[in-house]
Amino acid sequence: MLYGIASATAALLLAAVLAALLRVPALRYGITDRRRRVRPGRGRPVPLLGGAAVAAATCLVAVAGEWSGAAPLGHGVGRLLAAAAVVAALGLAADVWRLKARFLAAGTAVAAVCVVPYGETGVPGGLLAAGWIVCAALAFRSLDHADALAGTVAVVTAFGVGVCAAIEVRDGLAVLLSVLAAAMTGFLMHNWPPARIALGACGSLFAGFLLASAAVLTRAGHGIASSAGVLFALTAVAAADAVLVVLVRRSAGRPLRRPGPDHLAHRLRRLGPGPRASVVLLGVAAFAGAGTGVLVQAGWAGAGAALWVVAAALAAVLGLLRAEPRAEPRAEPRAEFRAESRAEPRAEPRAEPRGVRGGVVFGPAAAEAGGDPAGEGAGGLGGGAASGAAREPAAAVAAETAAGRGAADVTGRGAAEVTGRGAVEAAGWDA
User: Fold this and answer.
1) Which H/E stretch holds residue 61?
2) Where would you tag: which of 20, 168, 271, 382 has the fewest CB atoms within 10 A of its CB?
């Protein structure tokens, strides 16, 4: 008992420290979650080595207990831990080098075949159990689509399977699962929304494989029908998420391996809950399923109780299939912006040529047009007699200015007055 508490505490602290340390090299070498689109100035890349911290902490603490003799793992548990470590290494390779999904499935299948107790299940039952382990491990990997979701479900499921192992007097397996739950809790310190590090294929495959294989070991020797119900109840959230993704993508005609917002958390957020609330709700659902499995395992509930979990999962999947995205409210323009948009455009004043004001030529321009070197506005030439040829340039300038402004301001009856010495009047300018 004391070693169980000490080992769980050590696993929690070790996983938390390793997750913090591994975050730096993951960011430096670009080992980040490629499924998340990071916009410039809106977010940051999330490293993927959190799963390596969970797997390392679990394996180190479990091996230390086996080596010291304080908590021997027991028959078959050491082989299970070794196979889970191989699966974790395969997932780490997928995080770093982008291995295809079929290689992950094939490697997980080989590891599952090696841990199934065929002596208690038989060859046909053992093969079915191996196939279920592969599906459960891949389903847990699919749960890693939202911050803290896979970790929360793994912690709840580990406690449920650990209690089932304790009921079957598999103390070594129960201690291993408690260590896994503690290590995942230490990882959640860095993965709670908004996440600073993600689980990745390494941690999700490791946790899913270890939990599914441990559940198979606890149900070995029981009936196939009752075992199927208990196994589904223990992993109800992961199974429901996998079924939902398959149905959504098949109905939309999209490939199964193409990522998209088709998972439980994505669909649940469309109904209103935020990221943290969605994780809490799915964690409660996982607790309900795991609790039902424990009750059936302990004999406190009949095998039919697992059917209620199946019915609830199916109802949730069918309900979330119809979840539509929420319409974003359209932002109304500001009042001053609407007023400006309705206002008439203001006419910009047209600049007049230099020396022209109101259509009348004066100053140096008049001097140049009228021949007055002093530029006093006098139009007289040679003592007060202005010629028509000298007045024509000034009249052309005035006409151009009047045409640009839209109206010519002409003083008098169709005449322009040019004042000077002798009061010379020129009538009837043709503009």
Assistant:
1) helix 50-68
2) 382
pTM: 0.74
Which run of H or E residues covers position 340? helix 335-342
Per residue in 45-76, pLDDT tens? 899 999 999 999 999 999 998 888 877 888 88
Write the DSSP string, 61-119.
HHHHHHHHTSS---TTHHHHHHHHHHHHHHHHHHHHH---HHHHHHHHHHHHHHHS-HH
Tokens describing residue 97:
């080098």
Q: Report the SS3 class of residue 208.
A: helix
Whether 364 and 304 share a structural domain: no
Q: Could you say which of 275, 295, 321 is where a domain stops?
A: 321
Residue 430 in this model has a pLDDT that exceeds 50: no
CA–chain centroid gap for 391, Å, is 78
- Verify cis geometry, omega within 30 degrees of 0, for the bond prior to 117: no
Query: What does the DSSP 8-state code read for residue 212?
Result: H
Q: How many domains does the chain have?
A: 2
Of 193, 260, 196, nearest in space to 44 by CA: 196
Residue 78: inside a domain = yes
Q: Would you state the structure tokens that stand for residue 212, as one six-digit string?
A: 């599914």
Residue 136 has pLDDT above 90, yes or no: yes
User: Treating both helix axes as pointing N-terminal to C-terminal, what angle do 275-298 and 149-167 enclose, rounded to 10 degrees?
Assistant: 10
